Amino acid sequence: MRGKDQARAHGVPIHGLDTIAATTSAPEVCRCQDACMGTVDDYLAELAPDDRAAIAHVYELARELVPDAEQGKGYGMPALVYRGKPLLSVMRAKKHIGVYPFSPAAVSVVAPQLPPADVDKGTVRFQPDRPLPDDVVRALVTARKVQIEG
Prior knowledge:
This protein has two domains: about 5-35, no CATH class; about 40-150, Aspartate Aminotransferase, domain 1 (Alpha-Beta Complex). The model is unreliable at about 1-35 (pLDDT under 50). Helices cover about 45% and strands about 20% of the residues. It contains seven helices and six strands, in the order αααααββββαββα. It is α+β, with helices and mostly antiparallel strands.
């Protein structure tokens, strides 16, 4: 007996995990998330026009560089997938649009070309009225593609 089972056997509370585990399981949560997050095309169709145009442009550039990329998911997000691995996801967040190449190393390739506030470990952020330069998107996608081809 280990972990939560051992704690339960000794009467140690699991801080609400028992209630959560009794009402949901990880596979159900994943299935729900997958059902809520469809393909890239489905996601684009739900966006406001300005956001849709900005996000679609990033995906278009990625498809030009990696024509074999297919629509799929990466960490539950609509993404382009290349050779079975997530290549790139672009999503609207509350205060920005995030570009997620699923690789801090790919982000570090383009980080010197962007203001520090627009870059985080695995994310590049922008606003629809201030889109990422095409050469930055191309460099980001190329870095991730090379990494996948490894």
